[in-house]
Amino acid sequence: MKVFISADIEGVTGCTTWDETEKDKSSYQVYAKQMTREVEAACVGANEAGAEEIIIKDAHDSGRNIDHSVLPLNTKLVRSWAGGLYSMVQELDSTFSALIYIGYHSAAGTDANPLSHTMNTMLDKIIINGRVASEFLIHSYIAAYHNVPVVFLSGDKGLCKEAEAVVPGIKTVAVKEGRGNSTINIHPELAVDLIKEGVKEALTGDLSRYKLQLPEEFNVSIRYKNHKDAYGKSHYPGVEIIDEHTICFNSKDYIEVLRLFNYVV
User: Is residue 169 part of a domain?
Assistant: First the structure.
C-alpha cells in the first residue's frame, strides 16, 4: 500500500494566530513541532495498517516545516514548491492507494477557524459549482482525477464537517474549533493518539468506499478582497469579470481549472 499525506499547519491543534504559522516568528517553532508530530502519528497509523511507502508533501508556506528525522524510514518528504499545478499534493498520481490530510483548515469565506483561507489571504472566497471551496476540496478533486481514495482528514471542526459532506464515510479528527478570533483545542497528545488510530482505521478494509466522483464540468468564481486583483486576473484566457471583485471561469477539464488557479490565485 502506497500512501500520500498532505500536511498544513493552520489546522493543527493549538495554532491560532498568523505569527504562529510564520517561520521567522518566535512562536512558530511550537506549532511546526506539533505539525511534525501529527504527521508522524499519521505515518505510524498508516504503517500499522500495512503501508509500504509514504510520500508526504509539506504544504505550508515555504514547504519547509516538517522535521523528517523523526518520521519512519519508509517515508519520503517533498519540501518547498516545484511550481506545478498540483500544489499541495505535488507528486500525487494513480499509483497511490490513499490520500490523507493533516492539519488542514476551513476555507476563505468561512468562520470555523481564525486562520481560514484558501491558497492565500488575498481572496475573499473561491466557489466551485456552488460550493465554497477549501484547499481540501480543490486537492481532493485532483485525487478524484487520479481515482485515489480520500480516506482521512484532521483539522478544525468546520472543515471536518465539510469533508464528511464531500466524501461520505471519510474518517476525520477535529483537533480544534474556531470561535471568533479564538480557538478551542484538544490536548496535543490526544491529537496525536486520535490521528494515529484514525488513520489506521481509515486504511483498514475496502478503500474504494472513500472514492470521490469528479464533476463533469466546473463553474468557478473567485472573489478577491481588492478590486485591482480582480481586474488584473480577469485578463487570463477564458475568464470573465462579474463585478468589481469577482471573476468566473468555466471548463469541463479540471486540469484547466488547476491551470487557472496557478495563475490567478
Answer: yes
